[in-house]
Design a protein that fits this description.
This protein has two domains: 7-101; 108-356, no CATH class. It has helices at 7-16, 19-26, 30-44, 57-70, 74-81, 85-100, 103-106, 112-126, 186-192, 194-200, 247-273, 285-305, 330-344, 353-356, and strands at 131-141, 160-167, 173-181, 223-225, 236-237. By secondary structure, it is α/β, with parallel strands linked by helices. It is built from 14 helices and five strands. The protein has a five-stranded mixed beta sheet with strand order 3-2-1-4-5, with helices on both faces. It is 48% helix and 9% strand.
C-alpha cells in the first residue's frame, strides 16, 4: 500500500514550511527532528530490493513519532501512511530500539560534579537542600496481556507495567526502570533496579556530605526524595507517617512534597506530549517497554534542545497518594529528623510554610 498518497509524501515537505505545525505534528522543532534523524539514520537505513524501494529513515522516524504523539492504532496509521500493519509494527519497534541506544547521551548517570549542579537547582527551585532527585513510579496502562493472570493487575484496578523514574529539578529523567509487573510495589521495583542497588552499595559517586545552607554542621548526606511507598534510607527521604503529626513533621512533609512533586510533573509532561500514554497500549509487554523507553529518551532530548515553558500547575492538582508504609534503617530516620529540625530553624525555614500546612 506504500504509495505517493501517504502522509509522508503529501504532508512532510509542507509541514517543514510551517514550524508551528511541524512541532505540533512531531512534538519537536524542525532542527531537533533533523538532529535526531542524523543520529538515527545509521540504525534505520535499509537496502532497496528488486521488488520495492526501502522506506527511508525519515519516514520511519515520522511514523514512530506520530504513533507516540497520538496513540493512534497501527490500523489507523496504515491508512495515513499507506503502509501495511505488520510493516508499521516493525518500524515502530526498530525505531524505538534505535532511540533507546541514545540513552547514554541523553540520560547518562551523573558525575559527582553533575550531582552537585542538580542539588543546587533543587535547592533553588524547591528550597530542599542536599537533594539529588525525586523518585516515583508511574503505571503504564495496557490492554490485558494474554495468559498473564494477575501479574500486571495493579492496586488501581487496571493492567500495567511500571515506569520507575528518578527526575532532576528541570523535569528531566536521570534514570528509568521499565517493565516491572503492575502488581509490584514501587519500593520493590526500586530495590531491585540497577539504580536502587547502586544507591544501596554507594556506587553512584554522590557528592561528599556537607552542612545544610546557613549552618556550620553537622555534615549531612545528599538524598533523594520519594513518597511513603518507599523505604527510608541514608540517601532516601520519605514523609513522616500521617498519624500523630505535629507542626514540625507537617512542615517537613510539606517541604519534601514540594521537591517530590517534580517527578509527578515530569510524568504529566511526558503524558501530555506523547499521548500514547493517555490510553491503554494494545502491545505485547516487551514492545510496550520499548515504546516507554523511547518516549523517555525523547522527553530528555526535546527538553534539552527545545526547552519548555512549563507552568507548574500539575503539582497543585496531585491526587492523594495511596500510602504503603515501609520501615527502613534507623540512620535514615535520624537524618530525616535533622532535616525536619533544619526546616524549623531560621536558616532553613521559608516564610510561607506554616500557611501551607
Amino acid at each position: 500500500m506504500h504509495s505517493e498518497r501517504g502522509q509522508f509524501v503529501l504532508l512532510y515537505r509542507e509541514l517543514r514550511e510551517h514550524p508551528d505545525k511541524f512541532r505540533n505534528y512531531t512534538r519537536m522543532s524542525i532542527s531537533t527532528f533533523d538532529f535526531l534523524l542524523d543520529l538515527l539514520t545509521p540504525f534505520l537505513s535499509r537496502q532497496d530490493t528488486n521488488c520495492r524501494d526501502a522506506i527511508s529513515p525519515c519516514e520511519r522516524l515520522l511514523i514512530t513519532l506520530r504513533y507516540l504523539a497520538t496513540g493512534n492504532s497501527y490500523s489507523s496509521l496504515q491508512y495515513e501512511f499507506r503502509i501495511g500493519i505488520s510493516t508499521i509494527s516493525e518500524i515502530v519497534k526498530q525505531t524505538c530500539d534505535a532511540i533507546w541506544t541514545l540513552k547514554c547521551r541523553f540520560m547518562p548517570i551523573p558525575s559527582k560534579e553533575k550531582w552537585e549542579d542538580i542539588a543546587q537547582r533543587f535547592c533553588m527551585k524547591t528550597n530542599f537542600p542536599n537533594c539529588l532527585g525525586a523518585i516515583d513510579g508511574k503505571h503504564i496502562r495496557l490492554i490485558k496481556p494474554c495468559h498473564s493472570g494477575s501479574q500486571f493487575f495493579n492496586y488501581k484496578k487496571f493492567f500495567s507495567i511500571v515506569l520507575l523514574a528518578v527526575v532532576d529539578a528541570d523535569y528531566t529523567f536521570i534514570y528509568v526502570d521499565i517493565g516491572a509487573f503492575g502488581s509490584s510495589a514501587d519500593s520493590g521495583v526500586f530495590k531491585h533496579s540497577k539504580f536502587g542497588k547502586k544507591l544501596a552499595s554507594n556506587e553512584l559517586d554522590l557528592p561528599d556530605n556537607q552542612p545544610l545552607p546557613g549552618t556550620e554542621g553537622p555534615d549531612m548526606p545528599f538524598v533523594f526524595v520519594a513518597d511513603d511507598a518507599f523505604a527510608i534510607h541514608e540517601h532516601l527521604m520519605k514523609p513522616f507517617s500521617l498519624r500523630n503529626l505535629d507542626t514540625r513533621k507537617r512542615i517537613f512533609n510539606y517541604r519534601l512534597c514540594r521537591a517530590r512533586r517534580l517527578v509527578e510533573c515530569a510524568f504529566g509532561i511526558l503524558s501530555n506530549k506523547w499521548q500514547i500514554f493517555l490510553k491503554p497500549m494494545n502491545l505485547k509487554i516487551e514492545n510496550a517497554a520499548k515504546v516507554v523507553k523511547a518516549a523517555c529518551v525523547l522527553h530528555n532530548l526535546v527538553r534539552e534542545r527545545d526547552g519548555v515553558n512549563f507552568e507548574d500547575t500539575l503539582a497543585n492538582n496531585m491526587e492523594p497518594a495511596d500510602f504503603i508504609h515501609v520501615r527502613g534503617p534507623i540512620v535514615g530516620f535520624s537524618i530525616r529528623d535533622e532535616f525536619a529540625d533544619y526546616f524549623m530553624s531560621p536558616a532553613g525555614a521559608v516564610s510561607w510554610q506554616e500557611d501551607m500546612i
